[in-house]
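batch job 7 of whatever, protein = Threonine synthase
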Amino acid sequence: MTLSIPSTNLSYPNVAKAANNWQGLIQTYRPYLPVSENTPVVTLLEGNTPLIPARAIAAKIGRGVKVYVKYDGLNPTGSFKDRGMTMAISKAKEEGATAVICASTGNTSAAAAAYAKRAGMKAFVVIPDGYVALGKLAQALLYGAEVIAVDGNFDDALNIVRQLSENYPVTLVNSVNPYRLQGQKTAAFEIVDVLGNAPDWLCIPVGNAGNISAYWMGFCEYHTSGKSSRLPKMMGFQAAGAAPLVSGEPIANPDTLATAIRIGNPANWQKAVAVKESSGGEFNPVTDGEILDAYRFLASEEGVFCEPASAASVAGLFKVKDRVPDNASVVCVLTGNGLKDPTSAVDHSLNELKQGIPLNLEKVAGIMGF
Ligand SMILES: *Cc1c(COP(=O)(O)O)cnc(C)c1O
């Protein structure tokens, strides 16, 4: 079996063994995905991310509630966007595309750049100037994408790339590309595969609402095929300054430090409303202050470093915790790795860096409290 588009025809027979038989999500969930023998699988062995028990979060809720975090920041480019991108790029390759384009708050551009290059394609990424976290920008540049920072927000960037893909020979790989959601739904499969059933609640940050729609699709498909006996309540959380699905109206100037969800007019709006209605779920806002509290709590109490947007799922759970049923199981999705946004970490840590310390044993021991 070929694991990715090889630039040579070398085969790597030991890869599957070394990765504990994990061959990427397309290979693993092939019967559930729109791929055929003719689809060239472009993979970085994404997926199979840990579902980590979060006992400190659970302790803040009590009443026997079990909390897990789905740490999708451990994907190859550091966010869940890899799940969608392995599908979108494999299908684009199958259809003969030679170039892809996306608008991005950062993570989509990193994933598109990495997978496109692996497939031997050109990647164009359009980002809102000044609102992309440093790690994400670093990735898109180093993976060799053409990075175009425009004077506008994400919604403006998406408008432009939609027009570009209609008028020029470039394939759009934003979450309006249906293959993205197909790939992303596998995260729901992984959760059910570990828990043996769907959780009672799924808490998830929402920007363009592609991911919440993809999770719901995954839970529904597994339910239909008898892999789970229930469906979760889908709890979507938006930053208070960028919460159009809460207010019911697009927002012209979305504002939040959680740049990955700084979106005023979600591309998957209708799907998101349908998910809420069919799952008995909700959209709720969380303030930047609440996001930062959860961000620090995750790192300092659970040892899990995510980016600020990801912490919205935990901030949201804390906000509605009194309404979680006794003994329920809750999964919070952590969409991206904390290393994506080192600036936020340094700026918002409450922990002080002890600087200017002389190289002296007693002085250092003194600071250590000895
Ligand atoms: C893209 C992204 C989101 C939002 O996902 P949507 O599918 O746009 O709702 C949340 N967190 C991170 C880290 C992201 O990169």
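notes: Residues 128 and 154 are 6 Å apart (CA to CA).
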